[in-house]
Amino acid sequence: MLAQLANTLNQSGVTEQVALSPEWQLALKLAVPVMILGALLALIIGVRRSVRGTETSDHAMTFEGELRRLDPRRFWRLENVYLPRAHTTGALTRLDHVVMSREGIYVIEVKDLRGVVYGSGRSRRWVHSVDGGEHEFLNPLVQNAGHIEALAAFLELPLKKFHSVVCFEGNAKLKGRMPSNVVRRQLSRYLARRRPRLLSEDELTDAWSRLKHHDRATDKVEAGRQYLAWRSGVRVDPRAEVEMQHEGGAERTQRLD
To answer: What is the pLDDT of residues 180-199, one digit of tens each?
Structure first.
């Protein structure tokens, strides 16, 4: 900028009439690096704000975007499915996501957390550390086992036809010996891995039809009320303890085709 000004002054002949004192010359020399530094700082701050905004948007869209990447010829899915809880008369359980394919039925438990999560496949209790505090919560794989048991009973299929998956869609860092079916990102890549076929075409079609019909016939508002009422009144039992970290979310039934 100063070079442009000097060039303009030279072209207009003004510099021949203006004589800068040594003090002014020194001031101009010092002003150049200060201006450059200020411009760089402003650029860095702007980029960081832009990146933070993008990260927030990405976290909000990660899970849904991952599901949309699934091959519609292989996978069908249902969301927020309420089923009778196994071994508990009159109680409901809620499955965050069910994805069906010939390779089996994937029951996906979603956790939206920030901070750090410590755990392993064999630990019954995991630790969530955030904002300087820590609390324990039930291993979501143990929690999801109850969901699978309820779905298997409803569809009258053996447990070996199901896959348990836990997906962290927040920005939590996972530490410990996490099994491969606990994922933070790349859910679609995990689901799309080629596995042995566990369901025949007829079994898959029948399971989809039964669960979809049940889901469409369910009053989600009433089912949600009953589900939360049971949860708020149930006593914690170490053998059947359930802790939900992902409440709410859009109610949706969707077939990917």
So the answer is: 999 987 889 999 999 999 99
Residue 114 pLDDT greater than 50, yes or no: yes
- The domain segmentation of the chain, as residue ranges, is 2-51, 69-254
Higher pLDDT: 125 or 236? It is 125
SS3 of the chain: the string is: CHHHHHHHHHHHCHHHCCCCCHHHHHHHHHHHHHHHHHHHHHHHHHHHHHHHHHHHHHHHHHHHHHHHCCCCCCCEEEEEEEEECCCCCCCEEEEEEEEEECCEEEEEEEECCCCEEECCCCCCEEEEEECCEEEEEECHHHHHHHHHHHHHHHHCCCHHHEEEEEEECCCCEEECCCCCCEECCCHHHHHHCCCCCCCCHHHHHHHHHHHHHHHHHCCHHHHHHHHHHHHHHCCCCCCCCCCCCCCCCCCEEECCC
Mean per-residue pLDDT over the chain, rounded: 78
